[in-house]
Known about the structure:
Elements: H1 6-34, H2 43-70, H3 78-82, H4 91-112, H5 119-143, H6 150-180, E1 193-205, E2 208-215, E3 229-233, E4 239-243, E5 254-259, H7 266-273, E6 280-287, E7 297-303, H8 307-316, E8 322-329, H9 338-344, E9 349-353, H10 363-366, E10 372-376, H11 379-388, E11 394-397, E12 413-417, E13 423-426, H12 432-438, E14 457-461, E15 464-465, H13 473-479, E16 481-482, E17 488-489, E18 493-496
Parallel strand pairs: 7-8, 7-10, 8-9, 10-11, 12-18
Antiparallel strand pairs: 1-2, 1-6, 2-5, 3-4, 3-6, 12-13, 14-16, 14-18, 15-17
Helix pairs in contact: 1-2, 1-5, 1-6, 2-4, 4-5, 5-6
The chain binds FE2/S2 (inorganic) cluster.
FE2/S2 (inorganic) cluster is lined by residues 445-448, 450-455, 468, 470, 483, 485.
Amino acid sequence: MTDPHLWWYVTRISAMLAWIVMTIAVLWGIVLSTRIFRGADNPAWLQDLHRFLGGTAVVLTILHAVSLMLDPWLSLTPLEALVPFVGDFKPLPVALGIVSFYVLVAVQSSSLLKDRLPRRVWRGIHLSSYVAVLAVAFHAGAAGTDRGTWWYQAVATVLITATVLAAIVRLIMAGRRSGERPAPSHPIDPRTRTRMRVVALDDIADGVRRIRLAPADGSSIEPWEAGAHITVVLPDGVERQYSLCSDPADRDHLDIAVRRVEPAGHGSAWIHSTLAPGDELEVVGPRCTFPLRPAHRYLFIAGGIGITPLKAMIAAVPPQRDWRLVYVGRSRASMPFADELERTHPGRVRVVARDEREGRLPLTEILADDAEVYACGPTGLLDELERLVPADRLHLERFVAVDRSSGRPSTPFAVRLARSQRILRVPADESMLHALQRSGVAVPTSCGTGVCGTCETRVVAGVPDHRDSVMSDADKDEIGVVYPCVSRASSAELVLDL
Ligand code: FES
């Protein structure tokens, strides 16, 4: 460590590596934004790699700055290394290097805080990385002491060319997007109503119609998770929830499939007999209460129209993952997407149509391995799965609420509103939602039966008595939510984030 050359070598190596890694991080970010790897294994892993590259560039840049300070021949002071225009050596190129470092730190921090930052802020900070990497090129070209060597010039040429090409690709992509969609990106807030236009209607099975919806203002749809549903507001104000069955990667439209319910179900009858292409609908969401968690092996079990959220999951599941679909229904003609799924995924899809095959579905045999089970369909099928599959690997979406209060008398309890510390009493014969609304507390609501998830409220303290059918109780407790339209409290007091 006393060798005066040591820090000189560290300075040069760390600078070059930081520049290379930073450029790769920027290129990787562009590749991610094109989504060409969308089908590759685990998109979260790809994002992690991007963050890792950014973090490595920050660490190498810090090492570069520290080694400059430790190099006995340069002996930079911390002020000279960290504050632009303090030192005498090539003030502008050095200042550009210092500013680029701060931009790099901001980009990396915004990556880590992505979920908490407004998307516009995150995007703005991220775009500044292009400027930073070009500024680094200028810094290295003007202040780098190896700049006269052939190898330095070769590496610099590759990095600068790659950066310029990346910036051009990014500009072309931005131009193409704005050309396709003149309006700004459409923010989908789970509790905000948006107008969507019916762009296509198809009868895709006996009694099942697919409705393709696109934002009426021509904007694009923000990312949504497979398993999500939307709430459609009918012209008379009645709301109906429908699972999305399109590919979450399609940002131009959302698809739902609606089975006509006999005797005439309120929403389905209107959709089948009145709704026409070009009509506009009020839509809330998408909202996801049936998320697809990472797993090595999936078993999807669909009953009839319950195929809808599972079809979106199949589109989203990384291709390297092991998955199977067992799809049961009355008759093949009444089962939407059955032929398409069999054709697209040979060997993975088993269609069990009762008009083609006699006898009961051999569920015990189907459930023999340790796959994570995702199921949606009629109550009887889901109840049977609840008896056969351990709760920790069973994920259900129910269309019809289950009565979970049987045998459990309702008792009074108190709700404390965490933000105002107000305390409300919920009598035994009143729902928590009603007690909140009676006291003037606004909680969004839709189904009122504990299936749609609209009234989701965060629990700050206390023990909920979950009586809804939205997701597993373990999942609700893990993320700390309660659905007050039907759920109550097991503790004397429940503190809600209201
Ligand atoms: S309003 Fe639908 S779950 Fe509460």
